[in-house]
Design goal:
The chain is built from 15 helices and 14 strands. With 420 residues, the protein is an alpha/beta fold. The strands form 3 sheets. A 7-stranded mixed β-sheet has the order 8-7-10-11-12-13-14. A 5-stranded parallel β-sheet has the order 2-3-4-1-5, with helices on both faces. It has a two-stranded antiparallel ribbon with strand order 6-9. Helix 3 runs parallel beside helix 4. 35% of the residues are buried. Pfam families: AAA_14, DUF4143. It comes from Methanobrevibacter millerae.
């Protein structure tokens, strides 16, 4: 049984729906986001439902116990040996399966030859491409695992640390989540600030070394680190490879656009960053340029770049973006055209256009709209939209500042509520 962890019920409910189906359940997400704990948690749930422990086979490819498994043939020998005398349905769990060469062949083989229910996890978005997609087209379901939401963090504090939640300490815990550490599950059990900072740095180093440098055979590690720092410093801003190339050039670092594009792809594949594309709200089409990027967990921002109060509004925006993804929305940046201002053309944007099941929501995010000038600037895009859907502005302001049909939500109320 797992100790010192919470039940992530949103995920467990999905697994309940797919239990004993022919679908291979695929958990993907950034390293240390809780995929392994979720697999163990579901294995525990299966035992509670009366499944014999012998019928549950759990293999973690990060465990030294399975270092001898290099390819699908090695894996087959172990699985067929372990299952040869088991009666009834077998539940197969494979954690970080991307470590095994040609693992896709084995998964497809088990699905066909064994009476089994299969669960796998991986820290690379390409897990669902190539042979897996070919062999299992329409036969797998992807379950994206995110770091802890703020609601899950509070659940941990209440259930594991026995903290009574009050309005005051919820605000304090949010400030800790927001300003310092983010939601990586493994740091929550640590008691002091220095340990948490060290743990976040170690997670980042592990992603950098195992998921990027080793996997993609990166030679110029210094360039990669500089690129990552630039990206982290640019969260929520429009992206331009040419801009990054010129920035590096100004620091006497020379590279090609192709190299930078590859680095960008690697960071996306490992779920370190998430791309938010731009959508032309007037032309009703997706745009191919000027996308924005956000960190999968905003805690890495404080690990990689120096803390600065000027970045706090962007961290709020990052938190909202990931929470919207966590809730199942398709999220884009809304482009509304340009406005002439002081002899310059200024582009008008809606921070997030969110769609789920055909329903649209428009969202602006701001640190505060307490000042009238800021309020007018943030509200303006809502009245430029040709189609009027539900409109929200999310800030840190504690009081209701709703205005002319645009509903205001405090960031904590948004994270803990279910209105959006």
């Amino acid at each position: 049984m797992l100790q010192n962890t919470i039940k992530r019920n949103n995920y467990l409910e999905k697994l309940e729906d797919y239990k004993d189906s022919d679908f291979v359940k695929v958990f993907t997400g950034i390293r240390r986001s809780g995929k392994t704990s979720l697999l163990h948690s579901w294995a525990d749930e299966l035992e509670k439902k009366g499944i014999n422990k012998e019928n549950i086979i759990f293999i973690s490819f990060e465990s030294p116990k399975y270092n001898s498994i290099d390819n699908n043939n090695d894996l087959d020998k172990i699985i067929y040996e372990k299952t040869k005398n088991i009666e009834g349905k077998i539940y197969l769990f494979f954690d970080e399966i991307q470590e095994v060469k040609e693992w896709e062949k084995s998964i497809n083989g088990y699905r066909v030859t064994l009476d089994c229910d299969i669960y796998i996890s991986g820290s690379n978005s390409k897990l669902l491409s190539g042979e897996l997609a070919t062999h299992l087209a329409g036969r797998y379901v992807n379950i994206r695992v995110y770091p802890f939401s703020f609601k899950e963090l509070l659940q941990y504090k209440e259930e594991i640390e026995n903290i009574e939640l009050t309005k005051e300490n919820i605000t304090s815990l949010f400030n800790e989540y927001y300003i310092n550490y983010g939601g990586m599950p493994s740091i929550l059990s640590l008691k002091n600030d220095e340990s948490k900072k060290t743990a976040l740095t170690d997670i980042y180093d592990s992603i950098l070394l195992n998921d990027i440098i080793a996997r993609f055979n990166i030679k110029n590690i210094d360039l990669l680190k500089r690129y990552i720092k630039f990206m982290v410093n640019s969260i929520g801003q429009t992206y331009s490879s040419e801009k990054i190339k010129n920035y590096l050039k100004s620091n006497d670092i020379y590279t090609t656009l192709n190299t930078l594009l590859k680095y960008n792809d690697y960071l996306q594949q490992t779920f370190f960053i998430s791309k938010c594309r731009r959508y032309d709200l007037k032309g009703k089409k997706m745009m191919k340029i000027k996308e924005k990027y956000y960190l999968m967990d905003h805690g890495f921002h404080h690990t990689i770049v120096e803390k600065n109060s000027l970045w706090l509004p962007r961290i709020i925006e990052n938190i909202v973006y990931i929470e919207l993804l966590r809730r199942g929305y398709e999220v884009t940046v809304g482009r509304l055209g340009e406005e002439r201002n002081d002899d310059n053309n200024k582009e008008i944007e809606m921070d997030f256009v969110c769609e789920k099941s055909g329903k649209y929501i428009y969202i602006q995010v701001s640190y505060t709209i307490a000042q009238e000038k800021t309020m007018k600037r943030e509200i303006k895009p809502f009245f430029k939209i040709p189609d009027r859907y539900d409109a929200y502005i999310i800030t840190t302001d504690p009081h209701d500042l709703s205005y002319k049909g645009v509903k205001h939500l405090n960031i904590i109320d948004f994270l803990l509520g279910d209105e959006i």
